[in-house]
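step=encode ok
step=design start
structure_in=
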């Protein structure tokens, strides 16, 4: 099984509930076990259109046998199930699920880059991630 870290964010609707539902859905993925969940932090939106509400952000540590591209597909299905629709880049959304790290893999595909290409630039990603890694 691979150790994988996911980023989770929400800035529409009941943000805390959206995050809880996403984690619940991730727990139901076959060949996947949730190991750890960071604290939830509130952050200002980064990029995207003006006037968005604040985000709640967290990170999740999982063990999975699902390959990276298949895991991404499942995460996108969870986003859709929880009400995410295609909109402007970095726009408001009820849930955002990102693969931050997947074992020791380095990938540069059109639809998936691991490690996540902007994670080191974003405190809202690094703070929850480091909380788990440094425990």
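sequence_out=
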């Amino acid at each position: 099984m691979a150790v994988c870290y996911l980023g989770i964010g929400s800035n529409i609707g009941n943000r805390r509930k959206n995050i809880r539902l996403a984690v619940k859905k991730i727990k139901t993925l076959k060949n996947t076990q949730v190991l750890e969940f960071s604290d939830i932090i509130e952050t200002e939106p980064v990029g995207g259109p003006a006037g968005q509400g604040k985000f709640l952000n967290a990170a999740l540590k999982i063990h999975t046998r699902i390959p990276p591209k298949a895991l991404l597909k499942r995460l996108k299905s969870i986003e859709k199930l929880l009400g995410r629709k295609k909109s402007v880049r970095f726009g408001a959304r009820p849930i955002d699920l990102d693969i931050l790290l997947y074992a020791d893999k380095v990938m540069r595909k059109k639809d998936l880059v691991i490690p996540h290409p902007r994670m080191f630039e974003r405190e809202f990603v690094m703070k929850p991630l480091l909380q788990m890694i440094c425990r």
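step=design ok
step=annotate ok -> The radius of gyration is 14 Å.
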